[in-house]
TrEMBL record:
<dbReference type="Pfam" id="PF02779">
    <property type="entry name" value="Transket_pyr"/>
</dbReference>
<dbReference type="InterPro" id="IPR009014">
    <property type="entry name" value="Transketo_C/PFOR_II"/>
</dbReference>
<dbReference type="InterPro" id="IPR005475">
    <property type="entry name" value="Transketolase-like_Pyr-bd"/>
</dbReference>
<keyword id="KW-0560">Oxidoreductase</keyword>
<dbReference type="Pfam" id="PF02780">
    <property type="entry name" value="Transketolase_C"/>
</dbReference>
<dbReference type="InterPro" id="IPR033248">
    <property type="entry name" value="Transketolase_C"/>
</dbReference>
<dbReference type="InterPro" id="IPR029061">
    <property type="entry name" value="THDP-binding"/>
</dbReference>
<feature type="domain" description="Transketolase-like pyrimidine-binding">
    <location>
        <begin position="38"/>
        <end position="213"/>
    </location>
</feature>
<dbReference type="GO" id="GO:0003863">
    <property type="term" value="F:branched-chain 2-oxo acid dehydrogenase activity"/>
</dbReference>
<protein>
    <recommendedName>
        <fullName>3-methyl-2-oxobutanoate dehydrogenase (2-methylpropanoyl-transferring)</fullName>
        <ecNumber>1.2.4.4</ecNumber>
    </recommendedName>
</protein>
Length: 353
């Protein structure tokens, strides 16, 4: 699996019936700038350096960020930009986000780090009742759009129930904030810079499994990638696969194995969960007639259910397969995804929670 993670963002040969496939194509033109092979945490570090250097109103803070943080994403920032702009906070997530909201409301760029996404819940009230509603409740007179909350999320094979959660669906229920999850170093840098500069509060989840495992050619210059635009990573005709974050590498392997059996998969990275790109997914499902959504968060109340419900509403009577197949699964294993792809080819099957 490790070798596959290093291929994220690069061209992957996902073959299909009599057609070419883009695989894990890049969204950045590498001919326009110099690139360097870096892992995901280094790409995050580059983005933070650029954000602080390009805007004197930017601040980075959180638990232990002053010496680089537990994942080293903030290494060197305090030395370069000073402890007035990069500083440690008390171990109090509610206080971190509350301070960040006030800082952003004063027309600053507040980049707050929650050390693990599992510990974002003490700040839940601040995020959903303050940050998300700031603009609306003031009649657009005030806002905290300069707020970005970074948090490492997901499983790493160890860490237990306090260091392996994927809480993204909690925040997808809340109008007024955006939820962004990158799949690779190149995506992480471009999406983080877009999030920091977006006029709305953003919760930016970073797949910690990929911090060191995912390595990719990343432009060294300043660049941004659009939010709320899904990306079709591999085109296909038999089934659409949708995912985000670290799960994309697992799904890519499943697509490669399915292709050996003549199953043509269309693979889509959602990238932004709210607001998500319904149009791209809808267009794909109308072509393939089948959809599989894979994520490592809990099935019950997971964001996959929202995608399933929306696409059923839009596509139930469309596409080559009637009735349309919309299996939704909580899957971490590539083998299980392959099994579901095979079953979806052979029969009409609904998989619920």
């Amino acid at each position: 699996m490790g070798s596959n993670f290093r291929r994220i963002g690069k061209l992957a040969a996902i073959s299909s019936k009599n057609q070419s496939c883009r695989g894990f194509s890049s969204t950045v033109n590498k001919n326009d700038t110099s690139t360097k092979s870096v892992n995901l945490f280094s790409a995050i570090n580059q983005a933070l350096h650029i954000a602080l250097d390009s805007d004197p109103r930017s601040y980075v803070f959180g638990e232990d960020v002053g010496f680089g943080g537990v994942f080293r994403c903030t290494t060197g920032l305090a030395d370069r930009f000073g402890k007035q702009r990069v500083f440690n906070t008390p171990l109090c997530e509610q206080g971190i986000v509350g301070f960040a909201i006030g800082l952003a409301a004063m027309d600053n760029r507040a980049i707050a780090e929650i050390q693990f996404a599992d510990y974002i819940f003490p700040a839940f009230d601040q995020i959903v009742n303050e940050a998300a509603k700031f603009r609306y409740r003031s009649g657009n007179q005030f806002n905290c759009g300069g707020l970005t909350i970074r948090a490492p999320y997901g499983a790493v094979g160890h860490g237990g129930h306090y260091h392996s959660q994927s809480p993204e669906s909690f925040f997808c229920h809340v109008p007024g904030i955006k939820v962004v999850i990158p799949r690779s170093p190149q995506q992480a840098k471009g999406l983080l810079l877009s999030s920091i500069r977006d006029p709305n509060p953003v919760v930016f989840f970073e797949p910690k499994l990929l911090y060191r495992m995912a390595v990719e050619e990343v432009p060294e210059d300043d660049y941004m990638l659009p939010l709320s635009e899904a990306e079709v990573l591999g085109e296909g005709t038999d089934i659409t696969l949708v995912g985000w974050g670290a799960q994309l590498s697992i799904m890519e392997q499943a697509c490669v194995e399915a292709a050996k059996e003549g199953i043509s998969c269309e693979l889509i990275d959602l990238k932004t969960l709210i607001p998500w790109d319904k149009e791209t997914v809808e267009a794909s499902v109308k072509k393939t007639g089948r959809l599989l959504i894979s994520h490592e968060a809990p099935v019950t109340g997971g964001f996959g259910a929202e995608i399933s419900a929306s696409i059923v509403e839009r596509c139930f009577t469309r596409g080559p397969a009637l009735p349309n197949l919309i299996p939704v699964a909580w899957i971490y294993s590539r083998v299980k995804i392959e099994d579901w792809v095979r079953q979806s080819r052979l029969s009409s099957l609904w998989l619920g929670s």
